[in-house]
Amino acid sequence: MRPRHVGQRVPRVNDHGPLHGTGLYVDDIEVPGMLHAAIVRSPVAHGILTAFESESVPGSASVFGPEHLRARVHAEVPVLWTIGDQQQLGTPLVDEHLRYVGQPIGIAVAGSRYQAEDAAEAVDLAIDYLTPVVGIDQALAPDAPLLYPDSGTNVIATFEAGDSAEHDRAVFAAADRVLRTTLRIGRVHGLAIEPRGIVAVPEPRRAPGNRNRITIYTSTQTPHGVRDSVCEVLGLRQGDVRVVAPDVGGAFGLKDHIYEDELMVVIAALELGRPVKWIEDRFESLLATTHARDEIHEVEVAFDEDGSLRGLRVDGRRNVGARLAVFGGGPLFTALGVVPGPYRWESVRCGGRLVATNTMSTGAYRGFGQTQAALIRERAVDLVAGELGIDPVDLREMNMIAADELPYRMRTPIQLDNGDYRRALRRAGELIAEAPAPPDDGLARGVGYCSYVQMGGIGPSDANEAIGLQIGGFESATVRFEPDGTVRVATGISPHGQGLETTIPQLVADELGINPGTVELVHGDTDTTPYSAYGTAASRSIALGGGAAVVASQRLADKVRAIAAEMLEANPADIELGNGRATVAGTNVDVAIADVARRAWQGFRLPDGSDPGLAESYAYEPVSATFSYATHACRVAVDTETGAVSVEEYVVVHDCGTIVNPTIVEGQIHGGVAQGLGAALMEEFFYDEDGQPLSSTLLDYHVPVSESMPDIRIEHLQIPSPHTPGGMKGMGEGGTNGSYAAVVNAVCSALPDADWSDLATPLSPSRIWQALHERA
Amino acid sequence: MNEHTIRLTVNGENAEVRVEPRMLLSDLIRHQLGLTGTHVGCEQGACGACTVIIDGRPQRSCLVLAVQADGTTVETVEGVECDGIENAVQTALHEQHGLQCGFCTPGIVMSLVAAHRAGVPAATAREQVLDGHLCRCTGYVNIRAAVDAAWEAAGDRRTGYRQENLGQESHRQESHGQESLGQVSLGQESHRQGGSE
Amino acid sequence: MKPHPFDYAAPEALDEVLDLLARLGDDAVVIAGGQSLVPMLNLRLARPEMVVDLRRIADLATFTITDQGLRAGAMARAIDVEEHPDVHLVPGLGDALRQIGHPQVRSRTTIGGSVAHADAAAELPALLLALSGQVVLHSVARGERTVEAADFFTGPMMTVREPDELLTSVWIPAHPGSVAVVEVAKRPGDFAMVGAVVAYAIADGVISDPSIVLFGVSGQPVRMASAEAVLVGAVANANTFQATVEQLREEFGLLEGFRDDVYATGGYRRQVAGTLVARALASMS
Questions:
Q1: A31-130+192-251+255-288 is classed in which CATH architecture?
Q2: B81 pLDDT exceeds 90?
Q3: Which end of chain A is more exposed for a tag (fewer CB within 10 A), N or C?
């Protein structure tokens, strides 16, 4: 039996750079002759820019204002998802209608970042002020100022999901009881520790009339996606643009598309014929990198006295900000698609509205709506359990889809694949019950649960098209033996912390019978990697990018066997690959796979039907989305006099199919839990009533610190996906989706006498105190 | 703009550079000295990614003007591989999977190295020292595990160091704060010298 | 963001600093540890013509701790005081220092800088006020003057220091009894949403030298005199403490500018301030 590398805790291969200072992040890139940019941004939430004057700017700097920039624009920045009756299909690169503080309206370029900021600051703006609208309710008021006056409304789109109104009414009418609640999901910021950044390097000019190639180094999740947008907006030929993602310091959805300010850098570099670097600072990042969530949900749940869940009704409104982000209303659409979760319902009916306000766009962030979906559903389930006095684990279990009922079509109507949801629930309940008893310290304690299914591995492409998503769902890989027997795997996915540089080689090594140390992942460069619309996002990379690598490797292994069989005078079906050698089964007759590789590239005496060389490419079109799942359970301690919360015990029981590397899976869960916990307890981005951002520093936007985070006990179930090659389901977002609702439920459970009928997250000390003492 | 000439020691090498007064030490280190292992995450003193060791103390290089660093000894992540704890911290972060995207990591390495040299016990490093750093990938769980592993591997210096140092401190009271520039080596014995830089 | 351009001087003598301040007034800003100033420079909120650095003036970096109190030069660093073996001689000092930011910040933060910056939610100004400390100011025009803490703070980041004056030292007297520094912050190291410094001694079985200061609740640290009065001469027991907190809550009603913001409502701050004081009183008895 050859050693299997999948499932092993193989140490990460790319830790050395950050640990020793030899990483290469985008701000580490220096190019001779490089200039530095600063962005001119709208200081107001709503207004019309009537003049952009750069007379006061020192002559050593160059400034490009709206007119100059617009002259280089070929098309609008696309919105890649069309939902419901949405009319906005793109947004202009520059727009004199200023709709949020931080909106980029020009770019200054100088010899240093310091000078560029001086120049940007010296630009004189004349603005006619308009009344801003900031919150959802304000934007929906009858006499609200309009961001897009021609449309006559601030509603960008409406849509429905799930059952018909008639069916919904019938189920609700037949149920014994109905409960209602309002959930206000605070605006958060994904907050990668590395802000965005870009270095645009035009090649020296060719002869007049020839095109100039440009290389763009950028901190992105999706190099191919960036290239698509650059070429579309600026009218460039795809072969003339190379996009490289160097080391990327976290992304979490924020870096899944190009931004207007980044396109301005590309324009400046092309105009000046010089390399231009722009590194977003934290102030800009908080103002003008996509925010997330900011939703209000009116939730109704219908149930019977015996605890049977019957109907779920959700009216969701999402503040999409001033303009649709690249994936538009996708997060709300996704939330309402997965909201039924792991339970049987007779009816699920959802309505969604996307609402424009004078704030930064809300876009993709780890979970992509599924975090909110978990809160909507799990809060409703806990309300029912509380109302009926049934243990929340028991209520969940009696309504939960059993293993033998899978595959199961949710009412929205997405199909769940496989697994044992009840086992995860029961085990999480056991583990949290085993946690050390709390001290008798006068704090209020509560246990909260969240059971969820996590849609990952989204596809196939035709399904994307059917829901209005304008990118395909496949992933590709090219696996190539080099003549020396080492392997390079070129992939369209673009890791930035997920450890795919370690895990994809584990998958490939097992298929090829070699050591993962001889396999290297090639990624993050449009010149050397196959196309991927997503890059690394949406819990897709190991399931689909890994799946593509597995199939390509299997095909490559067939070719290795064929050539080895020729060399060993055996039947290809009898060749086994392992430990770097191709062996005739049951014998000691073997040959090093490296020797097979050399022969393949020499082309000497290859078997009939084998082309020279040793490489295979495969584009994997998924059969359907994958669903990892889990139950999270935690215990919190609440100081009822100050509202302070600490999360003291945390357990996760989950299934993400085949686990390639448990250490890396656990790390993903830890980080995801922290982000959900932050949203539950402390993270919120605030604007004042004039639309001025209040959370413009990291002292004002509060992300968890080490003391905020408990240790986490994790147990893995491993039920391989029935669809993906390798059986992986994808799990990068799961931690976030579970912890947000689990922590909220735990706080609510600790304080049963508080008024939670209108629950706003984060549950800050002040909000908890109000729910306990002012509203209850 | 007036430029100032400053002299400082960075990773054991003497540097003499001309800087504008407004230049931040983080930018000097990264862009003039080319030591890009130190990362900048906020320039607001909040994230900790830019933490370097100045005269034995971990400090935010984004909250220090380069001119203020005249005469100091600075260590960055590129230069900390000279004795046991540096290696122990880096090895433990690797083995415990204490980093993912790696952007916050250099600052954490520097804080932990400084803390261990100063005799800070593992529990304090896990809590107070780590709270000075924001990590968005790991949820801190494995970083805390790495602290324990590193302290275990390198030995907890607390007992010996504290006693020895307390003895020194008690009769150094009056001289506290006298200039000690140039005398400050980076060893454990001398880090508390001087209330000034 | 990067700072707006400025000139820089690091004089070796105090007189040179005072001359610069006399000449430039508001156009100059003094940098000590820089942990509050540099963020403001980086955000271009502070745009001085000149930054005057105190780092070369050795005398300003000295501090002494005795059983009488802490005398700290303007450049004495928080971490050096915090780690000093005699820090316990000034009750409350170590607790206050440990709640300032994080160790990586305290390694530059100075006692004088924190007091001069006068953030309403900061620990040291509150401690100074609670312990009836003093601030020493120097200028060419007025020479040396000593200002009582009670007179020093005038509003959010505002003090009686004139633009040409330098805060050269701070005196924090040792309280004869116990001092508690308690706060509720969003996270460890953050500025307080609500904080309190509470002190009292017990002599002959009754309370003396009481002091109650709240911080983070309004534009400056505030001393709660009528609540303190309840404690004077009283026996340290639950009844006394309850009466003190009731008086404190009455006194709240007279405070102006109670903070009510997105992070915590005014009602929350009022109530929790009382809770913190009650807990501090109980913990010290």
A1: 2-Layer Sandwich (3.30)
A2: no
A3: N
Token pair in block for residue A313: 């009704």
CB proximity under 8 Å: B 27-86 to C: 27, 43-45, 48, 51, 54, 57-60, 62-65, 67-68, 70
Q: Is 50 exceeded by the pLDDT of residue B195?
A: no
Tallying the residues shown for chain A, one arrives at 776
- In this predicted complex, what is the ipTM? 0.97
What whole-number distance in Å separates Cα of residue C98 and Cα of residue C110?
A: 13
CA atoms within 13 A on the CB side of A741: 31
User: Which of A436, A225, A178 has the alpha carbon at shortest distance from A325?
Assistant: A225
Mean per-residue pLDDT over chain C, rounded:
95
Average pLDDT, chain A: 96
Instruction: Select from C184, C191, C265 the Cβ nearest to the Cβ of A642.
Output: C184
What confidence score (pLDDT) does residue B157 get? 53
> Distance between CA C37 and CA C14 in Å, rounded?
20
Query: What mean pLDDT, rounded, does chain B reach?
Result: 82
Domain boundary among the residues C173, C194, C215 is at C173
Give the Cα separation of C105 and C189 in Å (integer). 10
The 8-class DSSP code of residue A135 comes to S
**A246 within 8 A of A25, measured Cβ to Cβ:** yes
The predicted pLDDT at position A209 comes to 62
User: Amino acid identity of B184?
Assistant: V
Using the beta-carbon criterion (under 8 Å), do A698 and B141 form an inter-chain contact? no
Q: Which CATH number fits domain A474-620: 3.40.1190.20, 3.30.365.10, 3.40.50.2300, 2.40.50.100?
A: 3.30.365.10
- Tokens for A582, please give them: 């191709």
Instruction: Give the ranges where chain C is alpha helix by DSSP (H).
Output: 14-24, 37-42, 78-82, 93-98, 103-106, 111-117, 123-130, 149-152, 225-231, 238-252, 266-284
**In the predicted structure, residue B133 carries a pLDDT above the cut 70:** yes
pLDDT, position A205: 64
Minimal Cβ distance to A706: which of B22, B35, B126? B126
Cβ neighbours, 10 Å, residue A161: 25
Q: How far apart are CA A147 and CA A357, in angstroms?
A: 7
For C45, residues 6+ apart whose C-beta sits below 8 A from its C-beta are none
- Please give the class, per CATH, of domain A291-460+623-775: alpha beta
Residue A460: cis peptide before it, omega within 30 degrees of 0? yes
Q: What subunits touch chain A, counting only 3 or more CB pairs under 8 A?
A: B, C
Three-state DSSP class for residue A283: helix
Dist. CA C233–CA C222, nearest whole Å: 22
Q: Which domain holds residue C199?
A: 178-284
Query: Do the domain assignments include residue C234?
Result: yes
Mark yes or no for CB contact B128/C103 under 8 Å.
yes
Tokens describing residue A75: 């098309």
Closest CA to B37 of B133, B106, B111: B106
What is the three-state SS of A220-269?
A: CCCHHHHHHHHHHHHCCCHHHEEEECCECCCCCCCCCCCCHHHHHHHHHH
- The 3-class secondary structure across B105-159, one letter per residue, is HHHHHHHHHHHHHCCCCHHHHHHHHHHHCCCCCCCCHHHHHHHHHHHHHHCCCHH
Predicted local distance difference test score (pLDDT) of residue B178: 32
Provide the CATH number for the domain around residue C237. 3.30.390.50
Residues of B in contact with A281 (CB under 8 A): 42-43
CA distance A260 to A282: 17
Least confident piece of the model among A304-308, A350-354, A441-445, B183-187: B183-187
Domains in chain B, ordered, with CATH?
A: 4-79 (3.10.20.30), 84-154 (1.10.150.120)
> Is the separation of the CB atoms in B138 and A667 below 8 Å?
yes
For residue A118, the distance in angstroms to the closest alpha carbon of chain C comes to 7
